[in-house]
Prior knowledge:
Number of strands: 7
Bound molecules: S-adenosylmethionine
Distance between the termini: 30 Å
Strand order of the largest sheet: 3-2-1-4-5-7-6
Amino acid sequence: MNAxxxxxxxxxxxxxxxxxxxxxxxxxLFFNEWRKTLWxxxxxxxxxxxxxxxxxNFPYYPTSSxxxxxxxxxxxxxxxxxxxxxxxxxxDLELMDVQNLCYADNSFDTVIGTFVFxxxxxxxxxxxxxxxxxxPGGQVLLLEHVLSSRxxxxxxxxxxxxxxxxxxxxxxxxxxxKSIKSCGFxxxxxxxxxxxxxxxxxxxx
Length: 205
Ligand SMILES: C[S@@+](CC[C@H](N)C(=O)[O-])C[C@H]1O[C@@H](n2cnc3c(N)ncnc32)[C@H](O)[C@@H]1O
């Protein structure tokens, strides 16, 4: 395991017990609606959620699909396990690194991740793995915060990024739309509810 992976994992292990409380304000104000919009696009028999965290997307899981979800932080996954039991949810939870998935090529109809690629140490490697395990004709759905397109704001985000990443494990200057476009998908579509810094991405393989 490399140093960047270890650091990110440790940060999420550390904040896991407080994660839901830390994000409660933004969740209620913005994230809920974006999650709802993204999960409405989910379809297919077998769905994979990457970077499941504490299981904030559990309320949106479709009952008609077989669900698998993974995270590389043991402590975040423990919180998800508790939520799974509380909600009596059917989901296979796995401890795994999205940069190195153990699934066969073309395994899932939909692969989904929310606010994950801001913290994956090698985001393009992770996105390439999503492409690999997604079935041809299937889709990858992402909800991600990204670097602003406004030059001055982008400059500020780049300057304070190391501090934010050190404190919360998340980078605020990722260019995830550009990264996913480099992975070979047939089509990459941005939902119109996307904002300058938060993107709802649908990539069709
Ligand atoms: C900001 S949290 C988001 C959690 C959840 N998706 C949500 O919407 O609340 C990012 C999550 O991605 C996980 N993560 C980061 N890098 C990862 C990797 N390489 N493999 C698997 N999980 C990863 C972290 O452990 C953390 O749980």
